Automatic annotation (TrEMBL):
GO cellular component: cytosol
PANTHER family recorded: ASPARTATE CARBAMOYLTRANSFERASE, ORNITHINE CARBAMOYLTRANSFERASE, MITOCHONDRIAL
Record gene name: pyrB
Name this polypeptide is given: Aspartate carbamoyltransferase
Pathway entry: Pyrimidine metabolism; UMP biosynthesis via de novo pathway; (S)-dihydroorotate from bicarbonate: step 2/3
Main function: Catalyzes the condensation of carbamoyl phosphate and aspartate to form carbamoyl aspartate and inorganic phosphate, the committed step in the de novo pyrimidine nucleotide biosynthesis pathway.
Catalytic activity: carbamoyl phosphate + L-aspartate = N-carbamoyl-L-aspartate + phosphate + H(+)
Length: 317
């Protein structure tokens, strides 16, 4: 695996290999010294054009636990804020000895451009680009689901499992990547949102669409993934009548959570709008695996860095 730009870069077996490797990486977290020498001497650059807490820290922790050097590069306060081009920034990082670049941008396609423009020949990992994709978030979500819903996770997929994804589908790169990955792993996915928050062309996605969360829950689910309503992307408004109306129809209340099967789990990529899209009692309740998602993110991103930097080298053997 040279780059990870989109879930489309993965075959079903590729995805399972990444999840299986993450399972091995997770075992290191119970050790007194939580480090592997896998990427000694390598340098990973976090190139973040967009604010992030969980994703940036997760990639930083993943690189450090693989013994790589990490450089955190923020667009704010850099030459990018003075008008430097993405190309010149990439060439600068390459000249400084970057072995892999993790990029997060508000512009869809930024990671693809870095990987394919011919400016540099280094692995690129997409940490979220605009409203396009967020492949490592989807992988950590699938990893979390597999741990809770599948016995004997190594080598297995999510065949037969039903996942409901609820909220701002239109602006969500997490939803796009999850639909692709979960369906690739055999799960059936139902998107639930107000009509104005369903993307044009969703009919071509490998999923079903519903405008009623209650109806989707009534059909049964193994997991419900709530998404943040991204107000910062809702230019002009008019996507739903009021916050109260949205919460009543599409929020995961305690009553709705109680109607889920006993084994069902609740996910959220964060940050959460408590009391709006998800009740605090649900977010902190026994069904919630939200904190676990954050922890699993480190293991999954260790696996991704391993696969793009070490899996096909002599050091891996």
């Amino acid at each position: 695996m040279k780059h990870l730009i989109s879930i489309d870069d993965l075959t079903r077996q590729d995805a399972i290999d990444v999840l299986d490797t993450a399972e091995h990486m997770a075992q290191t977290q119970s050790r007194s010294i939580r480090k592997l020498p896998t990427l000694v001497g390598r340098t990973v650059v976090n190139l973040f054009f967009e604010d992030s807490t969980r994703t940036r820290i997760s990639f930083e922790a993943a690189a450090k636990r693989l013994s790589a050097d990490i450089i955190n590069f923020s667009a704010k306060g850099s030459s990018l804020s003075k008008g430097e081009s993405l190309k010149d920034t990439a060439l600068t990082l390459d000249a400084m000895g970057a072995d892999a670049i993790v990029v997060r941008s508000s512009s869809s396609g930024a990671a693809h451009l870095l990987a394919n423009a011919g400016w540099i020949d280094k692995p690129i990992v997409n940490a979220g680009d605009g409203t396009h994709e967020h492949p490592t978030q989807a992988l950590l979500d699938a990893y979390t689901l597999r741990r809770h819903l599948v016995e004997g996770p190594t080598g297995s997929d999510l065949a037969g499992k039903r996942v409901i994804i609820v909220g701002d589908i239109l602006h969500s790169r997490v939803a796009r990547s999850n639909v692709k990955l979960l369906s690739l792993l055999g799960a059936s996915v139902t998107l639930v949102a107000p009509p104005a928050l369903i993307p044009i062309g969703v009919q071509s996605w490998p999923c079903e669409v519903s405008y009623s969360l209650d109806a989707a829950i009534a059909e049964g689910a193994d997991a419900v993934m709530m998404l943040r309503v991204q107000r910062e992307r809702m230019v002009g408004g008019g996507f739903f009548p009021t916050e109260g109306e949205y919460s009543r129809r599409f929020g995961l209340s305690t009553d709705r959570a109680d109607r889920l099967p006993d084994h069902a789990v609740v996910l959220h990529p964060g940050p959460m709008n408590r009391g709006f899209e998800i009740a605090s009692d649900v977010a902190d309740g026994p069904r919630s695996v939200i904190v676990e998602q954050v922890n699993n993110g480190v293991s999954v991103r260790m696996s991704v860095l391993y696969h793009v930097l070490a899996a096909h080298t002599e050091e891996a053997s």
